[in-house]
Amino acid sequence: MFVHRRIFMRIKMLLYSCLFCLGAYGQQVKESFTSIELQPTVAYLKYKGAESRMVRLLFHGGNSYSPGKVRLSFNGLRDSLDIAASDTGLTYYELAIPGAPVKEDTQLSIRYEANGRIYTARCMVSPTRKWNVYIMPHSHVDVGYTNVQEKVLAIHMNNIDEAIRIGQHSENYPAEARFKWNTEAIWVVDNYLARADEEKKRIFWDAVKKGWINLDAAYGNINTSATSPAQLMHMFATGTRLAKEHGIQIQSMFQGDVPGSSWGLSSQADITGIKYFLSAPNASDRIGTADSWRDKPFYWTSPSGKQKLLFWQSSPYSVGYALKGSKIPNFFTKEDPKPFYTGKPSDNFLNPYLFNYLAKLDQKNFPYNMTLLTWAMSDNAPIDPELPDAVKAWNERYASPRLIITSVKQFFQDFESTYKDQIPEVSGDYTEYWTDGIASGARETGINRNASDRLQQAGAIWAIRGKQAYPADAFDKAWTNIVMFNEHTWGAYNSVSHPKDPKVVSQWMYKQAFALNGKAQTEALLADAVKGGDIPNSIDVYNTLSAERAGLVLIPAAQSTAGDLVKDNKGKKIPSQRLSTGELAFVVEHFPAYSKQRFTIQKGAAYSTTHATVKENSLQNGIYTITLDTKTGNIVQLQKKGYTPNLADSTGLNQYTYLPDDALDKIQYAGDATISIKEKGPLVASLLVSSSAPGANSLTREIRLAAGIDNIELINTIDKKAIGDKESVHFAFPFRVPAAQVRYSIPWGSINAEADQLKHANRNWYTMQRWVDVSNKDFGITWSSPDAPLFEIGQYTTGGLLGSLDDPKYWLQFTEQQPVISSWVMNNLWHTNFRRDQEGITTFHYYMQAHNAYSAEQANRCGLENHQPLVVTPAAGPAEESLFFNINAKNVYVENINPARDGRGVLLQLVNVQDEPASVTLTGKNKLNVWESNLLEEDKNTLNNTFDIPGRGVIMIRVATNKSNEN
Questions:
Q1: Are 23 and 90 in contact (CB under 8 A)?
Q2: Which residues pair with 954 in a beta bridge?
Q3: How far, rounded to the nearest angstrom, does the alpha carbon of residue 113 sit from its chain's CA centroid?
Q4: Per-residue model confidence (pLDDT) at position 799
Q5: Does 569 share its domain with 620?
Q6: Residues 622, 564 share a domain
Q7: CATH of residue 660
Q8: What residues does the Glycosyl hydrolase family 38 C-terminal domain cover (predicted)?
Q9: Residue by residue, what is the 3-state secondary structure of 891-931?
Q10: With 0-12 CB in 10 A as exposed, 13-18 as middle and 19+ as buried, what is 252?
Q11: Looking at residue 532, what is its pLDDT?
Q12: Is 456 helix (H, G, I), strand (E, B) or coil?
């Protein structure tokens, strides 16, 4: 995502100030030069049948118009050459140094005779290597930003057609100059193929097999830290399946613009088959110190140490535009931009930028002789049709650096085959920088996160019921929408400056539709999973998790009109209560894993045994006692039975804070609270806190307990005012846990904040998957939110950044551990792309569970139960149903389960949460067949019914019986 052209040009000037001359000829100024300078380079010229080191003769004070003669003296050798006159004037001239490559620093001296004068200059020439520089042509894929999405898509699809034509044109060029187009995102390819006729598809796949078109597996440039594990896996599904259908294999991913990525990508490497990851982030906008990872390739090992990705962060993807941008149209201003021919492919190319760039690598003791630059003409820009000719001409002139037009796959394979044993291994989370923008659409973010959880539950219910004809294609479409909501483009380049521009409005509606459509598709698939009849006055409840659980069940009013009495399938009375919302609540205990239970609603009063009680500003449920401050409504006492400490700081938990601009001295709080009793018990008790709130029309916070349930639920609802000025909204949770360590869940695992993060990763805010835990060696609390993923450790680490977002020194380099979690629910701090304001009602749910010493298994169970609550559906089919096998494993949970596409059993991913290997045993009524599997649902290795998972490891398996879908 480029910033608007004017802003980008300022960034370009800062980044590429070394580009003081971009072509062989300067301006037509008749003032002749007054002095000369020698500039050493790493390059080798092809000169007189040999390969000679090159220096640049620079003219200062004016250009060179007259003929001249250069006399060189170097390492005991002499040479001379004539420089012809130039009508337009030379700004520099490239000189070949006589003799063999030097092995130590050696001085070069020259005399230049021109205009009747003699000029002298000297420079030191240092040893250097022969370089191979891979150039990866692409157009950065923003799904929107520069124009409405359909216009953007048309540009990228046209680029595919153009690439095929350029591939044909250059197929007889030297191998290094033959064109290869990188589509960057499967979103482009998926749409291209959907709109192509059979002949066009044939031509496309033929071009892929010839290497003219290259596919990387990611569906888009996704905020991977914001995706669930299932989403992170599915972002590669379309690409890998398309490849398999056409007899090719994709093992690479490219991510442009977005700084940072989730460690979970390496955890799933064996599942997805992705081995190579090229990152080409933004040049400077909100990237913290991430640029420090540039050109430092490493094997990114998973938390288990058993899987790895070869990761390379290249120079920013904007290099091509920075060099050639002044000679091509401003594509931001063109409605239907087309590839542009300058007629001079070698002008505004890589000379002298590349020489300076490689010299800096030399200075940094870069250990390899190859590197990569991406080549894009801006966001959503037409292809550069002149690249093959520019590369061909370059290689005809220079022996080194040799340019190679490449794909991601080719570059990584060449690099790995050469340097495999020299590449370091690195582990840790490269915590993303750009996830803060998702809080500019808080309502839709919550919708999408919840839809993702429900979609996993729909797949699990399909597996539990052993239903035939699993609608895999419909699930794929829903997953695609959910994943694409986490694509990094949220809106237009002028979304903040001109929020009512029709294009801005249109682009947001397109983006918003990913979340809304994903939700609608999920609801339809969930309804399809449970359909099968209508049994009056009965409901079915599903546990879609791999562990036994207890929990609160809420039956909608329309499904519980028969009465308030609830009985299970054996006629036993179940504690229940009619809520003020009209819902009928009841509690279940010891609910088996992956199973369905039926309950009936009968005429009569609710039955109760245990009690939750509520008073004016306090409530308890036999496990927790909670007290609210009568003035603020914040929780000032949170105490668990059998625990001595009060876990709430004196300022109170769940406190609303509003930060206008980003100045901490301007922070504001909710107004005086009005506290009322909402649910009176005996099963469910809750207090409702109503307040005025800065930035909002109103604020309510409900604190709810259910009798006998070890969980605290908070329901915070903001009726937001639309405010265009910069702002942030938080709910702060200052816990009283001395000497705390903060841990939180990421895709496929969890990390210790700071300790498990890579250097140069984002530390100003974090993105959780399901939970955050604040613990010392004796006790702590697990906190989670299905709706609000962003949090800060402390109050408030995003304050003061606004004017310094492009200055690395203002970003945190270390996270001090402290027991304060600030849920960052809303902001509009971006200057582009994201929404300027949001208004209306948005609800944020939070859950808290106190505990003794930290347990990874307990924290993950808590997070899973909060994200995937018990599912209530109309009664259909048998009264009890369950998965056809049982899973017995300590410290292991199932991340996802669904029927196989081919109908042979079910597929599931298991995660070991502990550092040591864990044993898993599968049992069933019939003989089980178990295989290790992958994203393509291939049977890789046969497993016994008992097998081990490495510490913090992830595995995908297929489980079937001789009857493929037996219950």
A1: no
A2: 911
A3: 59
A4: 87
A5: no
A6: no
A7: 2.70.98.30
A8: 619-782
A9: CEEEEEEEECCCCCCEEEEEEECCCCCEEEEEEECCCCEEE
A10: buried
A11: 83
A12: helix
